[in-house]
Design brief:
- The protein has 182 residues and is mainly α.
- The chain has one domain.
- The chain has 3 helices and no strands.
- Helix 1 packs antiparallel against helix 2.
- The longest helix has 139 residues.
- The mean pLDDT is 84.
Length: 182
């Protein structure tokens, strides 16, 4: 406001000097004086209004800018925190992958051992079953062989007996049998 007053005063002095210098035509000067007075009133009013209206606008704009700056700082801090979290996860990802690989390898080895022991147990079961079947087949073959041999022996004995058998021998056998019955 003080600046506006100083400006108006300087302007009035300049106008007054120009008024004093040139007295050519009174009417022209009057018109010029009114123009300057009108300009000074208009400039003073505009300065007054600007001095009254502009500071709150600038204050509101300053507050808005400060608010936007604080929000952007919060957003930036949040983004940096997220980026740090992602970086931390990426750094930990390699370690997690290594742990998963080691665990997978241990599980694979354990599964291989379990399968090997299961296979060995199954082989042992199959061998034991085969041995039992072979033993049973051998026993059945021996029994069949004994039957066959017994049948052959009976047939041979029958043939020998028939070859030695005479009617006198038959009578002697029947008499011995009857006597044994009595």
């Amino acid at each position: 406001m003080k600046r506006a007053a100083h400006f108006a005063l300087l302007f009035a002095l300049a106008a007054g000097l120009s008024f004093a210098e040139g007295k050519e035509s009174a009417e022209k000067e009057k018109l010029q004086l009114w123009k300057w007075a009108n300009f000074l009133v208009l400039a003073g009013g505009l300065m007054y209004l600007a001095g009254k209206m502009v500071p709150p606008i600038y204050a509101a704009r300053t507050q808005s800018i400060l608010k936007d700056m604080s929000e952007s700082q919060k957003i930036r801090a949040d983004a940096e925190a997220r980026a740090a979290e992602v970086e931390r996860r990426l750094a930990g990802l390699q370690a997690e992958i290594a742990v998963l690989r080691a665990e997978s390898q241990r599980e694979s080895q354990a599964e291989t051992q379990r399968l090997a022991s299961h296979t060995a147990a199954e082989i042992a079961k199959i061998q034991a079953q085969s041995e039992r079947e072979i033993a049973a087949a051998g026993k059945a073959a021996r029994t069949e062989l004994k039957r066959y041999a017994a049948g052959l022996a009976v047939d041979l004995a029958e043939k020998k007996i028939r070859a030695r058998m005479t009617p006198a021998t038959e009578d002697g056998l029947v008499r011995n049998f009857v006597r044994d019955l009595q």
